[in-house]
Amino acid sequence: MVKPTKGLLSIGTIAALGVLAACGTSSPGTSSSSGASGIAGCRGTITVATDLPLTGGDRTDGPFPQLAAQLAVTQANAHHLLGGCTLKYISKDDSSVLKNGHDPATGATNIAALATDATVMGVIGPFNSSVALAEIPKVSQAHLALISPSNTSPCLTVVVAVCSDPTIKIDTASLYPGPHTYFRVIATDLQQSEILAHIAAKVLNLTTAYVLDDQEAYGRGLSLLFAKFFTADGGKVVGTASLPGSTTTFTTQVSLAKSEGAKLIFFGGTTGNGCGLVRRDMGSAGLTIPLLGGDGCEDTKFISDANSGANTSEAEGSYATSAPDASKLPSSAAFFSQYASAYSSMAAPYNDGTKEPYTAYGYDAMNVLLQAIRSVLVSNGGQPPADSQTFRDKVVAALRATQYDGALGHTSFDPNGDTLNTGFTLYKVTSGAFAAVNTYAVDASGNVTVKS
Amino acid sequence: MSEQSGTPAAPPASFGGADRSGSAMLVDQSGLGSRQARKGGVVSTVGPIFRAANGWVSRYFASLLVIMIVLAIALTGVQHGASLMGEQIKNALVLGAIYALVAIGYTMVYGIIELINFAHGDVFTASGFYAVFIASVLHLDSLATGSFGGLLLALAIVFPLSMLAAGITGVVIEFVAYRRLRDAPRLAPLITAIGVSFLIEGILLVFEGPDNVTTHQASWINGQAFAIGGVSIGYTDLFVVGMALLLMFALGTFVRRTRLGKAMRSTAQDRTAALLCGININRTISATFFIGSALAAAAAIIYSINYGVLKWNIGFHLGIIAFTAAVLGGIGNIVGAGVGGFLIGMIYVFGGSIFGGEWSESLIFAVLVLILTFRPVGLFGVEVTTRA
């Protein structure tokens, strides 16, 4: 939005979104098609897509935001959000059998296929930051908007100290050979680790930590940032270990943590890569200190893994932060009831959107994209721009100006495409389930406060 | 058994004891020493030093490895105190016991038909799930956690049944996938083995799902048995190591003392000659697969009782590490596989303790490369008397 020639467009976009926001609060069924935008005469096909891991080890994660995004498309079609234009939806699965879950190579292939389809105006995904690394350069070259519901690696958009760590090695600038077309509706690990460190040092008052990670971009990044902020908060890291996701026993590290007198074990990584197993091995070693993890640990698998050892209630008292429980937000109530009625015939747990933390993020991401597409149509005289590249560029420009009130509250993006809607909830395992303790927010200068 | 050509009179530094001039040639011919000699000493100044170092390393490989492990243990003790050292030794023994039992399956099959049975690790996983199935059908969980007698009864039920099922799996795999390829080029059964491995993993993925499966068997045995110098030894730890040693001892006795064991040994030595002596080769090979797979089942139950979770693909990874243990001990050598398993457990734990967990697996596979380079016959050489 620095070029003066585009100023007019942005004013138009905001105006159009203002109209839409008004629609959102009333019954959208009647108002959007009869809007003064004149897009009823829109001709052509516009495609939106999702690229999420739907099978293998991630089948308990990806389908929720996918179904939510699909619901957004179904609703948009029902309400003729894009006027007379045909809105098509493609779902891609970035899992592979080889990786038994999300696979960057599959993700890149999916994006390449979507990018060559001139009707595709935006993609919701990917779920994992490692996949995003493979996909961002492709969408940047294709000028295609990519909105992630769940990528939290800060290095995808901003350069922070840990990006150059040998195990992360993300050259943020090189991810964008073309324009910056990547957005996310979730807060990043930079904010999450600041909050985690604050929780460890200031809320739980634990001053020494043993820090583990799973060697993946997400887990390693979270660990390094946690260690940095934890030290800044007056804590001391007494040992670190970085283990591959295939690790099935952590007894060596648990023994080391015990011997170093750690008051806390921090795990940066996912449950699939051993978060729950660390807790299990703490139980077998008789180490009764808390385990703290990020959003990769906050799931039911963590509890069953942790309780699989000799102590069948070992998970109790473990902590993990995660993005705020969207199902508890007043703004999300309507969405979750719509989700439940739309997918009532699906098998459990997919019939209940509250079973996974990213469901509402998938919904808002798709809606943000659809609103941006609509605003482009409106400002272009009700028709899609003739040239698909111009169309894509305009969608990205419209996304930058997003002011959207959805299930997650108010979403807008900073110049890096990161959402300005931040906040993480601390969960503690109580009676066999993660229970929310408090939600924390961090401001631009690093002050952590409890969010009401 | 690894002396270089220059010192034929030097006494063999074999770890296992048996020296055979035939196997000594194995190392000598492929070793660096003879190649340098053939070249006519182009690098005349560096050559002899390098050759001597090479010979020295290959001769004392076992001692060097053991010294390094002992140093690592001592270093851990000095750096972090005796209690961590003790705890890590315990961790290493527990891990090593499982590797050892799996390694024996690799080594037995290799010994008898010279095939690296890559499906063995997946037989391990499958038999773990057999045990879970048997335990749930017969309600063994409540029996085992009820009383000590109940636990013994549960173990006495789950071990033989799972081992029987796993043994049958092994025999079927051999019959279907390997038997017809017995005289095919060496690569053909190897490829089939990898195929069978992926097949089993695929089936397990469909039936058991992609996530960790909680087996509930970790609650069978718990509690602290005793403590030495601040290191608490759980009943589970004693069970894991004790059971592994017991099974290995039983296998050793079986191979040495029984007619079938004798048939196995002779088939391993010379299949044609064994056939001429009236040994039923097919039956002997089937028995080998049965026993190897049954031991994998025992390892899987022990794993499950210790760790409490199974996953569709754990066997492949664990299998490759166990295979390294088998190579370390000298592939084809049962005692070697057992000792190799414990040594690999030590390398895994103390490597991770000293250099950081990220180095554990790198160290193990570095040992694999080193052993194949300097001492391809393994620590124990090819001791034909126990090879089966």
Topology record:
The complex is a heterodimer of chains A (452) and B (388).
Chain A: H1 7-25, H2 28-31, E1 45-52, H3 63-78, E2 86-93, E3 95-96, E4 101-102, H4 104-116, E5 120-124, H5 129-141, E6 145-148, E7 182-184, H6 189-203, E8 208-213, H7 217-232, E9 236-242, H8 251-259, E10 264-268, H9 275-284, E11 291-293, H10 300-306, E12 319-322, H11 333-342, H12 359-379, H13 388-400, E13 404-406, E14 409-411, E15 424-430, E16 433-442, E17 448-451
Parallel strand pairs in A: 1-2, 1-5, 5-6, 6-7, 8-9, 8-10, 10-11, 11-12
Antiparallel strand pairs in A: 3-4, 12-15, 13-14, 15-16, 16-17
Helix pairs in contact in A: 1-12, 3-12, 4-5, 6-7, 9-10, 12-13
Chain B: H1 21-30, H2 32-38, H3 46-59, H4 61-80, H5 82-113, H6 120-137, H7 140-146, H8 148-178, H9 187-208, E1 213-214, E2 224-228, E3 231-234, H10 235-257, H11 259-269, H12 271-276, H13 281-307, E4 309-310, H14 314-329, H15 334-355, H16 360-374
Antiparallel strand pairs in B: 1-4, 2-3
Helix pairs in contact in B: 4-5, 4-15, 5-10, 5-13, 5-14, 5-15, 6-8, 6-9, 6-13, 6-14, 7-8, 8-13, 10-11, 10-13, 11-13, 14-15, 14-16, 15-16
What tags apply to this protein structure?
heterodimer; A: alpha/beta; Rossmann fold; globular; disordered N terminus; B: 388 residues; ABC transporter involved in vitamin B12 uptake, BtuC; 16 helices; disordered C terminus
